[in-house]
Design goal:
The complex is a heterodimer of chains A (about 260) and B (about 300). By secondary structure, chain A is of the alpha/beta class. Helices cover about 35% and strands about 25% of the residues of chain A. In chain A, the strands form two sheets. Chain A has a six-stranded mixed beta sheet, sandwiched between helices. In chain A, strands 2-1-4-5 form a four-stranded antiparallel beta sheet, with helices on one face. In chain B, about 75% of the residues lie in helices and about 0% in strands. Chain B has helices at about 5-35, 40-60, 65-85, 90-110, 135-160, 160-170, 175-180, 185-210, 220-235, 240-265, 270-285, 285-305, and strands at about 115-120, 210-215. Chain B starts with a helix and ends with a helix. Classes of the chains: A alpha/beta (about 260), B mainly alpha (about 300). The structure holds adenosine-5'-triphosphate (ATP) and magnesium ion (MG).
């Protein structure tokens, strides 16, 4: 499905600020796998997702998706196959456009964007139906501007936008980190439901270790641009947060002093 | 009382000018608001449209082909600016300035090396209205009709799938790329459309005032911005159609302000100064509003504390 092979990403190459954000990293994802990613600040989690999505060009290695080499494909082309939700709720929607217009842009992904009407009647009905499934009452606010939604509502909408045309791969970068704990849990549950229903191959970065263990079929831990631990679904079930912290200290050779990673 | 008569006739004239410049303002709206990218190409592309329209009238007697050709050439100018922005990675403001400068020379070339072309006694787009039944209102209605058609076409375009992608690019380009849209292409299409409209407006102005001049576009972008902002402040931004109409009404309002200022005795050479001040004030409006709101809450806060 997804193959990240020996990828290295260096920021500010050749300057004093040179930073090896990804260090010869490899990650293979099977179809339908739901991987949660944990690691301290600056471990390279966002960089990994951004390199897969094509935001940054990598310095070495190869990335293939569904057998197609996408190493040098531009971001917008990869987006045809990849759905994304960002950490900042403001990043996921066009604030000055209505909810249904936002959905229409997402729904047109991979189809020609010509001079046909932006939203057909059939599409509006589909959007209403999909919005109703979110259980947030957004189906009755389709003509309201997205800028008026709360952070949690936006993340739910963005999640719907990212999956309304089924992506090969779903990338979630701490998409609940900006939400209050109750809303974060709701959005996480929604994510889990959508991922399971559509059997989506997913990579989800989170700072919340408990969430990382509770959700998904596999968990990886990153440190200094490398994967230092990889748990399959059986190991996940047995693992506890305390055990993870101990493993982190042992494998990274550093003390676990990052409470943000725990609390999210 | 005697001075009111010239005022009334200038007001009617400025109404007509407002309708024509509204098309230019709609072009500026596309770059400034829809793409969120202030584009200074406007000063050059306005004159480009006027020059091409004047040449088509003067040399070929084809006023309407002149309008079409002006629109197309404006589109090309916009594409050039967009390529500087997207492919050469030059800042939008600088790209616009470069194109504006380049167009100055190009416009003189278009006009056959002369700095202006007079069109007196030539057949222009308004000639067929001579002797029309509602008399002097015919030209006014004709211009209104053109503007309404432009607004409707623009509105319908911005409601297509392509239009959605274009609008979202100005709102949130990160999201748009994540949804599989090539934002470079959206900037190219947007700036083409924007400058096409601007040139179209310039083309009509040349035929309306019966001359084209190489310096007629100077400060045009500021006038366009003033119209956009005045329109938004006075007439609202709730829906897209409302916004487009507001920009057009903003243009008319701007012309009325100018007419009244001149009637009050302001020297015409002060016009650009006044336009710059209007735009500066209007652009600082949001900041001023916030400041004002904050002052009120602070006051309420302290007053509330004292009351306890
Ligand atoms: N655009 C960039 N330019 C320069 N350096 C960058 C850039 N993006 C990330 N880095 C650096 O690369 C390293 C990895 O950053 P990254 O954002 O991937 O970490 P992360 O694991 O997502 O951390 P966090 O948990 O804080 O989000 C950090 O040292 C960071 O400073
Ligand atoms: Mg990150």
């Amino acid at each position: 499905m997804l193959r990240v092979e020996n990828v290295t990403k260096i920021f500010n190459r050749g300057s004093v600020n040179e930073m090896k954000a990804l260090d010869n990293i490899s990650l293979y994802l099977e179809e339908g796998e739901f991987v949660t990613v944990i690691g301290g600040n600056g471990a390279g989690k966002s960089t990994l997702l951004n390199c897969i999505a094509g935001v940054y060009e990598i310095d070495a290695g190869r990335i293939t998706l569904g057998g197609i080499d996408i190493t040098y494909a531009p971001e917008y082309k990869r987006s045809m196959y990849i759905g994304r939700v960002f950490q900042n709720p403001l990043d996921g929607t066009a604030f000055d456009m209505t909810i249904e217009e936002n959905l229409a842009i997402a729904y047109a992904k991979g189809k020609p964007r010509g001079l046909r009407p932006g939203i057909t009647r059939a599409e509006a009905a589909l959007f209403r139906e999909k919005l109703a499934l979110l259980g947030l009452g957004l189906e009755d606010r389709m003509k309201e501007k997205a800028g008026r939604l709360s952070g949690g509502q936006r993340q739910a909408l963005t999640l719907l936008m990212a999956t309304i045309t089924k992506p090969f791969l779903l990338l979630l970068d701490e998409h609940t980190a900006a939400l209050d704990p109750v809303t974060a849990k709701k959005v996480l549950e929604l994510t889990d439901r959508i991922v399971k229903e559509q059997k989506l191959s997913t990579i989800m970065v989170t700072h919340n270790m408990k969430a990382a263990l509770d959700y998904g079929t596999r968990t990886i831990m990153m440190h200094e641009g490398r994967i230092i631990m990889d748990l399959d679904s059986r190991q996940k079930k047995e693992a506890t947060v305390e055990w993870l912290i101990e493993q982190f200290s042992r494998r990274s050779g550093t003390d676990f002093d990052n409470d943000r990673m725990l609390l999210g | 009382m005697t001075t009111l008569v010239p005022l009334l006739s200038t007001l009617l004239d400025s109404l007509e000018l407002g309708l024509i410049y509204a098309i230019m303002a709609l072009g500026v709206f596309i770059s400034f608001r829809t793409l969120n990218m202030p584009d200074l190409t406007v000063d050059g592309s306005f004159t480009l449209g006027a020059a091409i329209s004047a040449v088509m009238v003067f040399n070929h007697g084809r006023p309407f082909s002149g309008l079409a050709l002006a629109f197309l050439s404006g589109c090309i100018a916009g594409v050039c600016t967009a390529l500087l922005v997207t492919k050469m990675k030059i800042q939008p403001l600088l790209s616009g300035i470069l194109m504006m400068l380049a167009l100055y020379s190009i416009n003189i070339k278009v006009m056959g090396g002369k700095p202006n072309i007079p069109l007196l006694n030539k057949t222009v787009m308004f000639s067929f209205l001579e002797g029309a039944s509602p008399g002097k209102y015919a030209r006014y209605l004709f211009l209104l009709l053109i503007l309404v058609i432009v607004i409707i076409v623009l509105f319908l375009f911005l409601k297509t799938k392509l239009g959605f992608a274009l609008r979202a690019t100005g709102d949130n380009d990160k999201m748009v790329r994540a949804l599989g849209v090539n934002t470079d292409n959206m900037i190219i299409i947007g700036l083409a459309l924007s400058n096409g409209l601007v040139a179209f407006s310039g083309a009509i102005i040349a035929q309306y005032q019966s001359f084209a001049d190489v310096s007629m576009g100077i400060g045009m972008v500021v006038i366009g911005l003033a119209s956009v902002i005045i329109g938004e402040v006075l007439f609202g931004t709730r829906t897209l159609l409302r916004r487009l109409s507001a920009v057009s009404l903003g243009s008319v309002t701007y012309r009325l302000i100018v007419a009244v200022s001149l009637w009050l005795g302001m020297p015409p050479t002060d016009l650009k100064l006044v336009s710059a001040v209007i735009v500066a004030i209007a652009l600082s409006m949001t900041a001023a509003k916030d400041k004002f709101a904050s002052l009120i809450t602070r006051r309420a806060n302290t007053v509330g504390k004292e009351g306890e």
